[in-house]
Each structure stands twice: as structure tokens, then as C-alpha cells.
Amino acid sequence: xxxxxxxxxxxxxxxxxxxxxxxxxxxxxxxxxxxxxxxxxxxxxxxxxxxxxxxxxxxxxxxxxxxxxxxxxxxxxxxxxxxxxxxxxxxxxxxxxxxxxxxxxxxxxxxxxxxxxxxxxxxxxxxxxxxxxxxxxxxxxxxxxxxxxxxxxxxxxxxxxxxxxxxxxxxxxxxxxxxxxxxxxxxxxxxxxxxxxxxxxxxxxxxxxxxxxxxxxxxxxxxxxxxxxxxxxxxxxxxxxxxxxxxxxxxxxxxxxxxxxxxxxxxxxxxxxxxxxxxxxxxxxxxxxxxxxxxxxxxxxxxxxxxxxxxxxxxxxxxxxxxxxxxxxxxxxxxxx
Length: 337
What we know:
This protein has helices at residues 59-66, 76-84, 110-122, 128-146, 149-162, 175-180, 183-193, 209-224, 276-281, and strands at 5-8, 17-22, 26-32, 38-45, 89-94, 99-106, 199-205, 315-316. The chain is of the alpha+beta class. Helix 1 crosses helix 7 (183-193) and helix 3 (110-122) packs parallel to helix 8 (209-224). It is globular.
């Protein structure tokens, strides 16, 4: 049994959020919602398109496609059919700072969802023939974006504001970069970034935290073998190469009856580096420092604002009807006092 940390204590068992760190630095976070009969389960990796070198542009999104093409246990068809057979839904999306693979099922089918999602995240084969077949799919997706002004305008805005930087480049990459990616480069990217300490497993719905932890631990132990019990999760991303913001005007003409306009500018730096004190007060129920009793050790930390960090809109993979909504337990909110 691994230690369990209660981040938020819900009322009457509803809304309780718990966290457990497994060997290798794998984090498991759950939120109980006993009023529903379903569960959403997801695995998040803190790797997005901003982590790519210029020659790797598009690799994160490319890898998202390839993880559904088969593992040692399941073919692509078996992965797709496993949750369809029980009326579930499986999906994935890539953003500039993270990638997510998730499933929605009835609570009774949670073990199946955990097994399938953990399998494709930990044991993807990345076969050469799959790399080549998905290359054409991704190039077609790029063409679809070019034909959809409401999507294209956000890529143009990021490029105008941040230029040729990790955050300025499009999530999909370019036709040149995607055509240049090899099976070996993508496999290396997968094995170097999809490590346990970069992953967060989240689940929300009618569930038991200990059961989720046990199922996830079993799935990862079978795939990874020995895991370092002293390895800690990677620290939150703070700062990084955001590119030098500059003023620019970009016009893209399309023969449509609509006009899309984006006006933006750099904002104030958000998400300052968390301190030990800030970590302690993240789950405190008080709403302001004025409510602290005399001698409260957390009062000083409350004097600093901790604004919500915003990220670019995720790019969903257009295979089947996909939803961009995310599991409740994994939504990041700005912690209150």
C-alpha cells in the first residue's frame, strides 16, 4: 500500500481529491463523484510541442497518432474495439505543453479502460509501416487546418507574436518537418519523454482511489518491470524558452464569407515558482489571509498572488468524433488559500 495524500476533502465522500506517487515518480490523482455511474480516466504527459527541437517539429502530435496503432498485446483494431464493445469512448489530444490520452466508460468498466490506456501509453510498437501510413494522415490533417480559417488563425497568431520559437511553431509541425521525421527519431522521442516521472494518471467519477492505484500499479509494473522507488516526479514547468514577443501583422486571404480576427499581446508572467509555504496552503479552506487565526504558519504565503496559468488550445486528432473536454480531476485551477 502506497501513501495517500488528500488534496481536497470533499463533503460526504463527494469531490474528494487524492494523490498517490508510485515507484518511478508516477502520480495518480483521483476525484470521487459517487452521484454518477461513469468514470473518466486519463494519462497526461508533461510533454508538448514546445519541447521539440526545430528538427523534431510535429513529433509530439505524430507520436499521439502512433500510440493507437498497436502494442505487444493489442492490434490497432483491438485497441479501437475494446472500449467500443462496452459503449465507452477513447480519445487523445496534443497541446503545446502536454499530451493526454483518455477514456470515458461506465464505472464497472474502469479496469478495462485502465488496462487499454496504460497499454498504449507504455507499450506502443511504433512500427515503420505505421509511421509511413500515419505520415499521410497527418499531412491531410494539415491541409484540413489550412482550409479551416478558425483553426488556421490561431497558428498564424502564435507565429506573429512569438515567431520561430517552440511556442510560436504550430503543434502539427510543417509538411517539411513531418516528411523528415524518421521512425528512429520518433521512437527515441517516445522512450526518452514518456517516462513515469513525466506522467500523471487522473480519474474522476464513481471510483475508489485505492482500487485505481492498484490497477495502475499493476499495469505499469507489467510494462516497465523494475521501477526506481526513489525517483521523484519532475518539477512543474517554470519559465522556459517562450520566444521574444514582437509586433506583427499577418493577413491570410481565403475565398470564404467569413473574416476571423485575433488581436493579442504578451501578458504578465503567470505561475510563479511555488515555494514550500505555497505548497502547504494550496488546499487550505480559508478564502483570505484575514481569516487566519493568530500564529498561522500559512498566513505569510497567502500574501502572494498565484494567478491561473493559461495554455494554448489543444489540437485534437480528427479520427472519429473527438471531444476536447478533459477529465475533471486533471483540470488545473488556481489554488485558493
